[in-house]
Amino acid sequence: MLYDFRSFVNPGYYAFGKGSFNHLGELIDRRKENDKSWTVFMVDDFFKGKELEERLPKTDKDLVIWIDTTDEPKTSLVNKYRDEILEYRDILPSVVVGIGGGTTMDYAKATGLMVTNPGDSADYQGLDLIKNKGIYTICVPTISGTGAEVSMTAVLSGPEKKLGIKCDYTIPDEVVFDPELLATVPADQRFYTGMDCYIHNVESLNGTWINSLGRAFAEKSSELCVEVFSDTDTPRIESDEKMMVASLLGGNSVTYSQVGVCHALSYGLSHVLGIHHGVGNCIVFEKLEEYYPEGVKEFKKMQEIQKVEIPQGVVAGCTDEQLDLMVETSWALEHMWNNAFGPDWKNHISKEKIRELLLRM
Ligand SMILES: [Fe+2]
After folding, report:
1. 108 CA → ligand 1 middle, Å
2. Is the pLDDT of residue 80 over 70?
3. 132 C-alpha to center of ligand 1: Å?
């Protein structure tokens, strides 16, 4: 046995297909207990003033929190949103809806939990530290690839570490997959986030924790990613729909196995430089031929077809202290190294090697 036994939970309900978002109000109403029940909408502020804002099924009791996604999710902001919700009405909301990408969905997942768990969200960064079930959470992805809509973790940067709040309760209760919501995503963001999914698959398939279940999810997800980013003739709505499925399956592939070298390094990079997860993974992954030769080759092919630039030299201006913190953040992600190399992972990677790899970025 390479890792502790665990029986994994998935979201309880999926709504899938074009136009699903039109039914969000019905899904919320199903969770209301009485006429005092209310809803929190946490929405990527990209949609402020856009058509989607008009389409939110909100009543005058509900609260809308606009999420600035410039930075990766922070424990301090989770605490702030939680306080705002607790002060808003004298009863707890029945539903928290997260509408956006990985950042917004992770805020919704973490905030929904912190409404019913006292204290600082930084104290819950880790595995199974949450005590109480959170508010019923519905995730609505508007960009696909992170797998946040199906994952049991809400990744947060705290004062000390970048680490997820990870437990069964972090899984959203319901997901609405409507590919029409992906229409406005710019090409480079679409690629970076799509490649996060592709990399989940490469890392789980090449890891030591993989089993037949994780493999089945990862292989199909990978096939869909390659179709989406290699074929430029398919109408966008069709490839967006495929990418939604790829993200769901890729998220599950890492649930049933684990990520690896690229994610461990990119967590270090984002924690120190605030680089977004998707692009951070791309920056790292293209330099990892030595660990994932086939994956990197295919990645570069897709990148060429999509004509997307990957930022270079991002570590060049870092101080020694910043580099040290990057190395320590990466090194601390034992489960990722363990999946990548096995229980004797310390024989395969060292802090010096991590530093050397980071200096290539
Ligand atoms: Fe990821």
Report:
1. 17
2. yes
3. 26
